[in-house]
Specification:
14-stranded mixed beta sheet, alpha+beta, 302 residues, two-stranded antiparallel sheet, 30% helix, 16 strands, 32% strand
Length: 302
């Protein structure tokens, strides 16, 4: 068995045991999360959901009777799978644990389902980028993250769309260059989901789809905004993120300005957006005083 206390020692499959995650592993997983993203990892908040998921795969890696890594494979829809939650204990990093776990989970995806397999990570994570290449993934898009405080001003330029508006929403998306650039996907908390009519109907039924016209004329839709469920962050601030939003190029600055007003009207403190990292899409945020995030998410697929 490999001795990881020695420099440059690489683990092998023979050194570790990968098995289904168990409730008794929770404490070890929380400890691993505390050493990830400077203690701001989302992992502890989704463990209940992951344990309850009977369609996906939730695995841990054990080395010398200790849980040292974990990963989750989630089915987002028919023929659509998502890799997430790859975490390695700080003491095990640099010894190949992430590589073993990633290859194992990709193999699991091959065995239990077909269709598309995707995941996201930060653009600076070169180790994961290397693993993606090893396992046949392609880089689809790079995104820029922005955040701004919601405004107290009101805007009459947005109106809520309803289920009966599905054909109009679908037609609008199909003609949108930005929708194509964003891989025909909606993002929520670093997870990109392929858009189909069922997903659109869910957003419409929940009242989270808005038409937009700078003149306030609800008879003509000149922009489309789709928001995710409101949530509370670590500082107990109410947040809303944009699943999709766009209009014509010359109207984007006004559109995103109105978004901050709409966010205030629905009772949140901050609004966030991840947009395709091209000047045509990021400039309205930069000019509008949005704070740019330090990390750029990247989306991979195979």
């Amino acid at each position: 068995m490999s001795d990881i206390t020695q420099p440059n020692t690489r683990l092998t499959y023979e050194d570790v045991h990968i098995r289904p995650a168990e409730e008794s592993d929770r404490a070890a997983m929380v400890t691993i999360a505390e050493g990830t993203w400077e203690g701001h990892d989302y992992l502890p908040y989704v463990l209940d959901e992951w344990f309850a998921d009977d369609k996906g795969v939730f695995r841990v890696m054990v080395y010398r009777d200790e849980v040292v890594a974990l990963s989750k494979l989630t089915q987002l829809g028919e023929g659509e799978w998502w890799l997430e939650g790859l975490r390695v204990s700080p003491s095990m990093r640099g010894h190949g644990a992430a590589r073993i776990m990633h290859h194992y989970m990709v193999s699991q995806a091959r065995q239990i389902g077909d269709g598309v397999l995707r995941f996201s990570t930060a653009s600076v994570n070169q180790a994961i980028a290397k693993l993606a290449m090893e396992t046949g993934f392609q880089l689809l898009s790079t995104f820029a993250s922005f955040e701004i405080k919601a405004q107290s001003a009101e805007t009459a330029n947005f109106w809520t769309l309803i289920s009966e508006d599905l054909p109009q929403v679908r037609e609008w998306l199909n003609q949108s260059d930005y929708f194509e650039a964003s891989q025909q996907s909606f993002e929520f908390r670093w997870k990109w989901r392929l858009v189909n009519d069922g997903l659109l109907q869910t957003y419409l039924s929940d009242g989270r789809v808005y038409g937009w016209n700078p003149d306030g004329d609800s008879k003509t839709m000149r922009g489309l905004l789709i928001i995710n469920p409101i949530y509370q962050n670590h500082d107990e601030e109410m947040m809303v993120s944009v699943a999709f939003g766009d209009t014509k190029a010359d109207l984007r600055s006004q559109f995103w300005g109105d978004v901050t007003a709409l966010a205030g009207s629905v009772g949140v403190d901050y609004v966030q957006a991840k947009v395709v990292d091209l000047p045509a899409y990021t400039k309205p945020f930069e000019d509008g005083g949005w704070e740019a995030g330090e990390t750029r998410p990247v989306l991979y697929s195979r």
